[in-house]
Amino acid sequence: MGVDLSLDKEKLESQDNLKNKVGLELPNIQEDIPPRKKLIFSGIQPSGTFTLGNYLGAIINWNKLQDDYNCIYCVVDMHAITVKQEPAKLRQNTLDAYALLLACGIDLERSILFIQSHVKTHAELSWILSCSTQYGELGRMTQFKDKSQKHADDINAGLFTYPILMAADILAYNADLVPVGIDQKQHLELARNVAERFNGRYGKTFTVPDPYIGEVGSKVMSLQEPTTKMSKSDKNANGFVLIIDDKDTIIRKFKRAVTDSESEIVFREGKDGINNLMTIYSAFTGQSFEQIVNDFNGKGYGDFKIAVGEVVADKLFPIREKYLQLVSDKEYLRECYTENAVKALNVSQRVLSKVYRKVGFVS
Ligand code: TYM
């Protein structure tokens, strides 16, 4: 596995120590050390299969970033239990999510992909960070407000402290960049604040992470209610497209997409449905909005909806095939997630040990 997690600074410091000890002039290794690749971390909840929103907002970028960065990705099953879960279903959803991420192109030769509950450092760091997080800042989280309305019968403490666990996920690896959709931006700002507060109190410990939000697709909207985010919890199944939907289902959902009473295919304020379809089309084809406007000049919404559906279905088809093949190979999946949990633990344990020292725990 090619993830290089060595710290250049540490190598250089140990070179200096050696020099002092043996009194020798060592060759300067500084020139031989390639600049450290930045580290990417991101996570996704195993809430059944993923939507087109998850795919365009996050996974497509996770995939691309593997070329230039050290990437660590995680199926966040511990986050999932902040809302009620049926245990057998959660177990299945977690394995499905793992297989689906592999099918989407997460490459274990270049990246680490693990299941959150397998790596104990996340929960341990979360506790420490909770002592550097203010009650008031958690109360401002819009996702907490939304979710506590949706799950009014179970506003548990985990739902409230969820962003701390998310901060722990990221900070446990000293991630530089976090690819997410826009809906996670506020949580990321909290992670940055917590890191800065901890660093201010105990001395530089954590890298303050930056969000990585793609230009197109960072907020894919519901096909039925294009002013709200596409989400699998939508009661109307025509509002979201799943990555593993078959071609007929995808085209049917796009054909039924809500648009407006005009007929012009153009990206403009107030045309939420068309704007969303143009965004999806652009994300899959790489075409600019201008090109799309030219190509569909004189054509109706009906033609455009079918074109979007076809492009999406064709691009997702190989993922679906790969997923169906992987998900039945339980032994292979077990091997992958077990090995990757060990790798993730090794990296995050180093950071956690430093944190324990900094806060004054006896080692
Ligand atoms: P989750 O599981 O809700 O979503 C996973 C990723 O998909 C993005 N996303 C979308 N992007 C565009 N349009 C949409 N309609 C859409 N719906 C979802 C989300 O922004 C996210 O990037 N708390 C996180 C999971 C998490 C995490 C982390 C992320 C836990 N720890 C550490 C980053 C780093 C969540 O619930 O995402």
Summarize the structure in words.
There is one protein chain. This protein is mainly alpha-helical and 363 residues long. It has two domains: 9-217 and 329-359, Rossmann fold (3-Layer(aba) Sandwich), CATH 3.40.50.620; 237-325, Tyrosyl-Transfer RNA Synthetase. It contains 14 helices and five strands. The protein has helices at residues 8-22, 52-65, 77-80, 87-103, 121-130, 135-139, 142-150, 157-171, 185-202, 247-255, 272-285, 289-295, 301-327, 330-359, and strands spanning 39-44, 70-75, 111-115, 177-179, 210-212. The chain has a three-stranded parallel β-sheet with strand order 1-2-3. Strands 4-5 form a two-stranded parallel sheet. The longest helix is centred in the last third of the chain and has 30 residues, at 330-359. It starts with 7 loop residues before the first helix and ends with a helix. The structure holds tryptophanyl-5'AMP (TYM). Residues 41-45, 53-54, 56-58, 76, 79, 166, 169-170, 178, 180-181, 183-184, 187, 218-220, 229-230 line the site of tryptophanyl-5'AMP (TYM).
